[in-house]
Amino acid sequence: MRRRFGLALLLTLVSASVHALTPDEIIAVLKDPVHSTGNVADAVEEATGARGWMNSDMKPILDTKMVGRAATALMRPVLRNDGRKYPNHHLEILDQAEPGTVLVYVMQDAPDIAAMGNLMATTAKVRGLAGVVIDGAVRDITEIRQIGLPVWSRRVSPATSVGRMVSVDKQIPVMCGGIEVHPGDYLVADADGVVVVPQGAADRVVEFLGQYADKEARMLPIIQEKKSILKAIEIYNRY
Fold it and tell me: How do the pLDDT tens digits run along the chain, 239 residues long?
């Protein structure tokens, strides 16, 4: 729980009363430290009726927060004797994504194969991408930590995708960490995990985040005075 009502949130709530939020406004709210990843997960569930948090084996290699909009790519296993030439959708999206984008790579049926190493991480960093989420593995994590690129993955593995995986498509809906991710959805990630905010529900998620922040700011003094969370919950029904 947090003590303050973030400035970005206050400005956005005023804006929301007169027009739909812009992507930049939504990202500003999601980046505000007042909104924990846990609260974002709660807001997505309340807004959509479905969970938005990825499976708990999606782990970061850096202790940081990441917020951005998704660009997706899907890869699948291929036989080593398959001589056909496949497009490099996963590299194309890396070279094409706008600054601030979160790359979402799905290694279909291959969680122990690395989708990214230091060269791709360097490319993502110099292009100004917000980070990468991988339903699969990452490698070269010592170098990637030095590069400073935020990456979340299900595994860490030295196994290369070259000769083992081929690109299927890019900028399509994918299942990543148990959650469907569409291009343009918002991703929020930190040490607690990764949450997907569907773009069609983002305004409602922001609204609920404002309510949570207000309630928590009012609950903390009660908890501190009464030394009881139950007394605060009686009034605000939030924990």
Answer: 344 445 444 444 544 455 789 999 999 999 999 999 999 999 999 999 999 999 999 999 999 999 999 999 999 998 777 778 888 999 999 999 999 999 999 999 999 999 999 999 999 999 999 999 999 999 999 999 999 999 999 999 999 999 899 999 999 999 999 999 999 999 999 999 999 999 999 999 999 999 988 887 777 887 787 787 787 778 777 65
Cα dihedral 189, 171, 114, 68, rounded to 10, equals: -20
Closest C-alpha to 196, from 32, 98, 63, 50: 50
Helix, strand or coil, per DSSP, at residue 116: strand
- For residue 108, what are the contacts with CB-CB under 8 A and spacing of at least 6? 74, 75, 76, 77, 168
**Tokens 């991703």 sit on residue:** 187
CA distance 204 to 206: 5
Strand 174-176 relative to strand 165-170, pairing? unpaired
3-state SS of 152-185 is: EEEEECCCCCCCCEEEEEECCCEEECCEEECCCC
pTM of the model: 0.88
* Strand, helix or coil for residue 195: strand
Q: What span, in angstroms and rounded, lies between the C-alpha atoms of 76 and 172?
A: 14
